[in-house]
């Protein structure tokens, strides 16, 4: 144990910090070399990465309940952001208030290790409860739209995001990495997938994959990302998770395709609302949904892949 | 000194957590916000929280210079609220009854504050009105600045507070709030030009908001 962290996770965390240091130095060098060009946004993005990774690693160093509360808070901010950008009726305030209350409850089930309730709470109880609140309010004009939007938002930002905490708390046979290992594996693969798809797409891409949703996404970027992440996951999976080599490669494939999809789904939401960013919380990145778009899709799929293979107890 | 500490503590421990955690701000051009007076912040008015959001944005060391101009009939309603409004928020009470005597007194108070280099927060619509709908701009600010040449007026547009805490409710629901701060405008050619320029500024700033407006189905019938 290093600082209370499982050794493999500590190694990964140090490497992430290492990459960040190299990125920051390169950014500074670029700024010195090309004084004529404007690198403010790149630098702002890098600084924001320091903040996000620093804060998250700090939380991981604390006892488990802190991580649970931290991820619950991410859900809160994401749900708030979503419900602020989508047009809603003023009367929906009351239903929305109840939707927020679903957050502590959903994370409470994880806290007391009740997997069965964790997995059905949002799709069953919240799903049926919100329309009930709405009929008590009684305004039927726009009812379907509001009920749909609130539930979709809660699914994305509470149900899907809470799977991050589930991956962290899930017992694992790989005690050298612990739950942190699986969580970091997911986070690093998801974020690096974004980077790979962007870089490969910029350098090689020409044929657009979904021009109506995002004109910047190309087939080359997508396939390049899938290839790199599958290989990388195969290499890192056995070290950080309970998965074998081939299982890890498949996990990489799932994360890569799901991450790509999540990114596009939030893009489609923004395009529909005619906004560029979902918020202005993170300088250089946009809102919290802009940052978590891929994770919203990768977290549940990776969790259920692990759960399918090894079950909640950590061994098949 | 005690009043200054009260205001500082209130903003630091209550207003800021409420505004930055319970709500959440999408701030544009925070750096244009003046930290030295004389200056006037002319914001749109949706909710009692408008003042709180603006107070949360100022650096703590400049906070004592910020004076909200607020309705006496509401903020001095009873002695507890009056104590809070005058000692903690440090408001300049505004009587909304239209009497020449009152309006001259108010102008004198505001002028004195501006002379001391303070920053006034004024809501040119007068009252909160319907949530998220900009009302008619009144000309009080013009009367304040027309004889000064050193007092910029900063138009500020906020959106989202009208549904976080609309008029007549106590349920405070979290929503993100846009705060778009415009460049200071220093001189106006006349009262009509003042209204037009402010209106144009509000329209331009509103375009930078990213939160959505409320859909109000009653309007369509």
Alpha carbon gap, first and last residue of chain A: 26 Å
> What can be said about the biggest beta sheet of chain A?
none
Largest interface, C-beta closer than 8 angstroms, per-chain residues = A-B, 29 and 24 residues
- Quaternary structure annotation: heterodimer
Q: How many domains comprise the coordinates of chain A?
A: 1
As for the CATH topology of chain B, it is: Glycerol-3-phosphate (1)-acyltransferase
Number of strands of chain B: 7
Structural class of chain A: mainly alpha
Notable traits:
heterodimer; A: 316 residues; mainly alpha; 76% helix; B: 221 residues; alpha/beta; Glycerol-3-phosphate (1)-acyltransferase; seven-stranded mixed β-sheet; 39% helix; globular
Put the structure in a nutshell:
Chain A has ten helices and no strands. Chain A is mainly α and 316 residues long.
Structural description of this entry:
Chain A: Keywords: Membrane, Nucleotidyltransferase, Transferase, Transmembrane, Transmembrane helix. Chain A: Its main location: membrane. Chain A: Pathway: Phospholipid metabolism; CDP-diacylglycerol biosynthesis; CDP-diacylglycerol from sn-glycerol 3-phosphate: step 3/3. Chain A: It is a multi-pass membrane protein. The complex is a heterodimer of chains A (316) and B (221). Chain A is mostly helical and 316 residues long. Chain A has one domain. Helix content of chain A is 76%, strand content 0%. In chain A, helix 6 packs across helix 7 and helix 6 crosses helix 10. The radius of gyration of chain A is 20 Å and the shape is globular. With 221 residues, chain B is α/β, with parallel strands linked by helices. Chain B has one domain: Glycerol-3-phosphate (1)-acyltransferase (3-Layer(aba) Sandwich), CATH 3.40.1130.10. Helices cover 39% and strands 15% of the residues of chain B. Chain B is built from eight helices and seven strands; from the N terminus they run H-E-E-H-E-H-H-E-H-E-H-E-H-E-H. Classes of the chains: A mainly alpha (316), B alpha/beta (221). The interface between A and B is medium-sized, with 29 and 24 residues.
């Amino acid at each position: 144990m290093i600082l209370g962290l499982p050794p493999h996770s500590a190694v990964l965390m140090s490497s992430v910090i290492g990459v960040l240091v190299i990125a920051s130095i390169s950014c500074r060098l670029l700024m010195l070399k090309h004084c004529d060009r404007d690198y403010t946004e790149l630098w702002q993005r890098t600084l924001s990465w320091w903040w996000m990774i620093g804060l998250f690693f700090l939380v991981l160093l604390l006892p488990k309940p802190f991580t649970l509360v931290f991820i619950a808070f991410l859900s809160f901010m994401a749900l708030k952001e979503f419900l602020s950008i989508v047009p809603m009726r003023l009367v929906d305030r009351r239903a929305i208030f109840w939707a927020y209350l679903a957050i502590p409850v959903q994370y409470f089930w994880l806290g007391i290790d009740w997997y069965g309730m964790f997995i059905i709470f949002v799709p069953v109880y919240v799903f049926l409860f919100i329309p009930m609140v709405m009929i008590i309010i009684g305004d039927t004009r726009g009812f379907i739209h509001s009920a749909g939007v609130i539930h979709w938002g809660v699914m994305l930002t509470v149900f899907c995001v809470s799977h991050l905490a589930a991956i962290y708390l899930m017992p694992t046979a790989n005690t050298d990495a612990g739950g942190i290992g699986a969580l970091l594996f997911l986070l690093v693969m998801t974020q690096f997938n974004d980077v790979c798809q962007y870089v490969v797409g910029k350098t090689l891409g020409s044929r657009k994959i979904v021009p109506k949703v995002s004109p910047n996404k190309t087939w080359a970027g997508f396939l390049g990302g899938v290839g790199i992440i599958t290989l990388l996951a195969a290499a890192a999976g056995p070290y950080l998770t309970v998965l074998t080599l081939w299982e890890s490669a498949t996990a990489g494939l799932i994360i890569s395709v799901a991450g790509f999809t999540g990114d596009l789904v939030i893009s489609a939401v923004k395009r529909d609302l005619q906004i560029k960013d979902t918020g202005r919380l993170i300088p250089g990145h946009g809102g919290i949904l802009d940052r978590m778009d891929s994770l919203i899709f990768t977290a549940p799929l990776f969790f259920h892949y692990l759960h399918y293979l090894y079950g909640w107890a950590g061994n098949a | 000194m005690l009043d200054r500490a009260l205001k500082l503590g209130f903003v630091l421990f209550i207003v800021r957590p409420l505004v930055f955690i319970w709500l959440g701000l999408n701030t544009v051009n925070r750096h244009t916000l003046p930290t030295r007076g004389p200056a006037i912040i002319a914001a749109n008015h949706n909710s009692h929280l408008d003042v709180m959001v603006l107070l949360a944005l100022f650096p703590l060391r400049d906070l004592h210079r910020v004076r909200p101009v607020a309705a006496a009939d509401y903020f001095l309603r009873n002695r507890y609220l009056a104590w809070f409004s005058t000692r903690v928020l440090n408001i300049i009470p505004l009587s909304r009854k239209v009497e020449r005597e009152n309006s001259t007194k108010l102008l004198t108070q505001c002028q004195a504050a501006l002379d001391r280099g303070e920053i006034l927060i004024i809501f040119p619509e007068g009252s909160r009105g319907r949530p998220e709908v900009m009302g008619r701009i009144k000309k009080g600010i013009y009367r304040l600045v027309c004889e000064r040449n050193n007092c910029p007026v900063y138009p500020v547009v906020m959106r989202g507070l009208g549904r976080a805490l609309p008029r007549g409710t106590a349920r405070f629901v979290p929503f993100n709030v846009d705060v778009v701060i415009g460049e200071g405008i220093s001189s106006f050619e006349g009262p009509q030009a003042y209204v037009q320029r402010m209106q144009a500024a509000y329209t331009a700033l509103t375009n930078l908001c990213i939160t959505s407006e409320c859909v109000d189905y009653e309007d369509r019938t």
